[in-house]
Structure formats: C-alpha cells, structure tokens
Design a protein that fits this description.
399 residues; 19 helices; globular; two-stranded parallel sheet
Length: 399
Amino acid sequence: MESPRIIAGVARIVRDVGIAEELAQDALVAALEQWPREGVPDNPGAWLTATARHRAVDLIRRRENYARKLAEIGRDLSAVAPPEEPADPDDIDDDLLRLVFTACHPVLSAEARTALTLRLLGGLTTAEIARAFLVPEPTVAQRIVRAKRTLATRNVDFEVPYGSDREARLGSVLDVIYLIFNEGYAATAGDDWLRPSLCEDALRLARVLSALMPKEPEVHALTALLEFQTSRAAARTGPSGEPVLLKDQNRSRWNRMLIIRGIAALDRAHAAGAPGPYALQAAIAACHATAHTYEDTDWPRIATLYGLLAARAPSPVVELNRAVAVSMAEGPRPALEIVDALAAEPALRDYHLLPSVRGDLLLRLGRTAEARAEFERAATLTRNARERDLLLRRAAQTG
C-alpha cells in the first residue's frame, strides 16, 4: 500500500495524479540507489513519501507557470517531514480518500474511474485490470492514459467533495472499493489465490468512508459486506495456498470478530435507509457468515435475495450467482436453465466461472463427461495458477 500512499501524498501537492505517479516511481528508484549504500531507514514508507514530496516541490519550483501553486507549497513545507525525520504514515489517510474521490470524478467515464483507481489505489497492473473488467488490455491502457490527461486538462481539484457533489460520486467510489477487494479475494491472475493486502486496503477504505459519511446506508452496507467476506479469508486456502471451496472450509477458522463487526455495520445500513444493492449483497454474506455448517445455510433466503438483487442491479454475474443459490435451494436442473440462458452473454464469453458453475451442475445431474469438459474449459480460461489447478483436479475427479 506504500505506492498509493505516496501517490496520494504527492498528488495533494502537484494536483496531478499522473505526475504524482511519476514522482512516486522516482522516489522508489532513489531508494534502490541509496538504501544498499546507506542502509534502509527506520521508516521506509515515510522516507519514500518525504522524498517524493520534496521532488514535487522541486518540480513546481522549476515551473514558472506554477508560481501560484509554489506559494501554496511554500506554506505546506513546514508540514513536510525531511527524510531523516519520517512523518507518521497514518496522517495521510485523508489523502488516500482524496485520491479515490479524484479518480472517481464525473468528468471521467465510469470505466475510466474504476481503471484509474485500481491502478493508483490498488496497484494493479493493466493486465490485471483488463481481466477484472473482462475487456482487452489495450482498452484499459487507453482508459488510464486518457483519464490522467482529462483530470489534468480539466484542472480537477484534489479533494473530498461535499454535499451533492459527494453523493454524485459515491456510487462510483463504492464500486471501485469493491472491485479492489474482489481482486484481493480471488486474484484474476498470478500464482496466489488471495492477495490479502488488497482486501485489507479495501476494507480500511470502506471503514474510513463509513466514518466520513455515517448517514449513507450503502457505505455501511459495503463495509458490512467486506467485513463478512474478510472473516472467511483464513479458511479460503489450504496449507499450500490452494483454494478451499465454501462447503469444505473449516468454519472454526472464520474470524468471529469481523462477523460481529459486519452485523453491526449491516444494522447501521438498515437504520440509515432502504436496502440498496450492497445491502442485499451484505445480507447474502450474512446468511453464509451466520450458518454453523454448510448444510445449515438458508439457501432459499439467499436465492430470494439474489432475485431482489438481479431486479435492482441486473448483471450477468449476479444472474450466475443466483443460479448457484437456486441450485442449492431447488436443485441443479432449474439452475442449469439459468446458466444456459447466459451462454450467449458477450461479457461472460471468456469468464471462467460460467463453465465452472455449469460443470458443477452437470456433475450433480450425473452428466460426468459433459461436466469434465466444462471444468477443463474453465481451466483454460482462468489466469490464476491456483484456480487452474483446482479446476483440473475437479475435471480429473469426475472419472
């Protein structure tokens, strides 16, 4: 999380996220040059942040047309700790929030907002973002470049908005935080199934947002959802990092404190207003979190909640999840009809979970040969090594 912290701290000075990202990279290069020779400082994160800030100040000083900003920076210099006296990293949490709201400014398209925030806050590569969006990598690269240029040319303020402006940007901010969490909860690529730091970052941002906006029900609902999901993180992988499916998880490893926090956050969401999409997803997560065993899960209620969610915020992925719930509540046959209806969805054409779910339903119907083919197809689509191993193992186990 050091990179987003540095970018956020510098962006408050230069008012340009593209330049802030470049200065953050410069600071990292300086560290690679100096630390082997002079030793690693006591607080590396603060050293990097302070170094990037000083370079930002130098940059602004060199630019005559930024004279007015130079005066503002001059006033801020007293608050900038020198490298040998590191600042408290926690004091720039507000900067991270400013970075989220800036990246989610209305001058950007919804796709650009999400891509830029995932890049700056989540530290994801262009390829990882492309996979999360289910779109080509060059498309994401273009969105990020154009987004930075638009923010710079439109002189977008680096701030947390207030009043109606804040409400207008809130939905996009929540979506971005959830996408960051999901990338950490089930990595789209790489050798690790989980990326805990991304989950922690997203949960922390959600909690900060809850404190900032206590009257917004969906903020509390998203926080509740992330608390519930995070509570199961320790049980989602085995000793070698392999994925462990929900029905096979050791529930004694679930974090009860996070479940309690999730219930409290969901109560605050309900008290603050009518349930929205995140409140419905949090309610689904609560059903899983409060079930003592997999068999005790209230699948009919989960299927009903997914039906409400599909009506409120329809998407092919929601419909696929609804099919899973229906399969548990009513059996695999009606669920297979839902899944087959999704086969022509362009957004799911390369989505590995579609054949994975279909394979599971076919297996339960005794159509083993077809199930094996679906698991094998899902394995070819995923870019996560752990998930690929799991799918190939399931294919082999079909006999």
